[in-house]
Amino acid sequence: MTLSAIEAVSLDHILLEDDPINRDWIISGIPAARSAQWSVSKDGTTTTHVWDCTKGRFRWYFHADEIVHIIEGSVTVQADGIAKRTLGVGDAALFRAGSWSEWEVDEYVRKHAILRSPLHPTVSFGVRAARRAARMLRPKAR
């Protein structure tokens, strides 16, 4: 499979498919979620998605680091030890892999999301070591 050097979309025109929230995670309401993936990185560790959801309150588990950018509506989010925060149009947030948060959608929310799967610790260590070595080998500015 060959990947294009540039992939571009209009986030408003991506067709979303039903993507039900785990029933055990729903706290109140009947939130209906939909989503679509529109790209993937060459190494497969990063994907981009559009997701939306109707009114409801639920917990959410992040299996990957997820950066969200709200493109319509709003959502109030909260995690253990973190104060509630309402994210509206134009706001962005990072949710770390392995964490839970509570989401409360008052009416509707649509987000663009970038998900990056965490690397195995030994691979991550190797990447950090290679970056450090590259910095040390760079010529010094005079």
Please, could you describe this protein's structure?
- The protein has one helix at 121-137, and strands at 17-18, 26-29, 33-40, 46-62, 65-79, 82-88, 92-95, 99-116.
- The protein is mainly beta.
- A hairpin with a 2-residue loop joins strand 5 and strand 6.
- The longest helix is centred in the C-terminal third of the chain and has 17 residues, at 121-137.
- It is globular.
How is this structure best summarized?
The protein has 142 residues and is mostly beta strands.
Name some characteristics of this structure.
single chain; 8 strands; globular; 142 residues; mainly beta; eight-stranded antiparallel β-sheet
Write the layout of secondary structure elements.
Elements: E1 17-18, E2 26-29, E3 33-40, E4 46-62, E5 65-79, E6 82-88, E7 92-95, E8 99-116, H1 121-137
Rg, nearest Å: 18 Å
Tally the beta strands: 8
Distance between the termini: 45 Å
Q: Could you describe the largest sheet, including whether it forms a barrel?
A: 8 strands, antiparallel
* Total helical elements: 1
